Amino acid sequence: MTTQPDIEHPLQSMAARLRELLAARGIGDPCMVGIHTGGVWVARRLHELLGLGEPLGTLDISFYRDDFSRIGVHPQVKPSNLPFDVEGRHIILVDDVLYTGRTIRAALNEIFDYGRPASVTLAVLVERGGRELPIQADVAGLQMDLETDQQVKLSGPEDLTLTVQSHAE
Fold first, then answer.
1. Terminal Cα-to-Cα distance of the chain (whole angstroms)
2. Beta-strand pair 161-166/150-155
3. Which residue, of 20, 48, 54, 148, has the greatest Cβ tally within 10 A?
């Protein structure tokens, strides 16, 4: 098991790159949405660092997953909360780890159920290999090359910590 104790630097870097990207795209008032659970923790920190005006939105994509029947109902389903109108807005979608792309696909499906955004920018704390869908982050805090039997987990919400562990551990 390996721990990445300091993720403040990657978060600061993500905020700086998001500022640059939004400015380059002419986006002045984006809305931010975090995916439960780790994505919400990362989004809270980025929302604060960017000083965004709109309240933070949250998504629980449990019922939107394409592997729902295989993984079953998650016992701690949290309600989604988008406290702004999605229609025509620029959305920053935030998650903790981008792996296969299936969580992001499910989040996009849910967002589009609320309306049609003008754009969606994807920001993730960790981008790792193993994509199963053609989805990539616009901004990533860390790149990790992990073996297929390894997973990265974010612990929080206070004192965010990343841990890489093998399924064998």
1. 8
2. antiparallel
3. 54
